[in-house]
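Schema walk-through. Below, the input block comes first and the output block second. Nothing else is stored per chain. Lengths vary across the set, and this one has 338 residues.
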Amino acid sequence: MLIEHIKDHYQSLSIVGMAKNAGKTVTLNALLDEAYEKGVCVGLTSIGRDGETKDIVTATHKPMIDVFTGMIVATAESLFAQSEAKLEVLDITRFQTSMGPIIIGKVMMAGTIEIAGPCSNEQMKELIQMMRAYGADLAVVDGAIDRKSTASPSVTDGTILSTGAVLSRDMNRAIEKTIFQGMLFQLKEIHSAPIRAIADQAIRSQRIAIVGEEVKYLEAKTALNAGHLIGGALDETSTHVILPGAMVKKTIMDMVQGSKDYKHVTLVVKDATRIFIDYKDWLYFEKIGIRVRVLDGINLLAITTNPTAPSGYYFDRKMYQDRLQFYFKDVPVIDVMG
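--- output ---
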């Protein structure tokens, strides 16, 4: 059961799907159902729009989000008014969406609902605190496609990763992709207090920092096109490169081409949601000696599996679950579709 891994330990969590139809909404509904049975009051919102009967991207059928009496929900005004569940208005927030302001409500009668929350992580963090102030024991953020930023430890205390057969017809490939994403979420933190202090300051001030005998700050607004600049600033004493924003393939390739001293350094980003590199490129970078660490690690609470793809093919559900569990020995792998 999902809730057994979460209740009494965390104040907030995000549910992140690796792709559309990976089983994220089924995971969410299972969690809400278990929470209600255990008497855990959930506060629910989303980084995007979710809960609609048909996926607006793929036009496939989607399960609705089921909410229960006593739960706290935060959604856009127009969706609040259209919900099947009966809701009592608790607060009209200052957070605006294309569907009106975000309204916080209490579920007075169970039913289905669509959820659309704020777009920024800063607003999301504030909204989580507001829902908790209105009585939510656990705030749950339903992530949208390609919006893994809700997994950031600066937003939620932990993350559930939903994966499924939709990733590939080849089970091995689907497992490979899931292992990679899970590995990113479990990247090791920088433990050195001096390096952490430098990294925190550099990231807050949005400056690239190179740590060696001295700390060099580069005049570049982002790291996206600064790889050659970073490479040119490295020397034999360099130990760490702090990247304040996203980490992408081009930055690393340009840095590698610009200096042989890259093998002595560790790249540091705020957390794994800032990494935008695919599996094959990551393997190549590891092979040539690239090391990556994070300032803040992500707490991966569980992985849920959906062995069936909407196009009709499916995996052996037990084999799929067992193989993932073999690779994630310390993280429960749960078949919520079973």
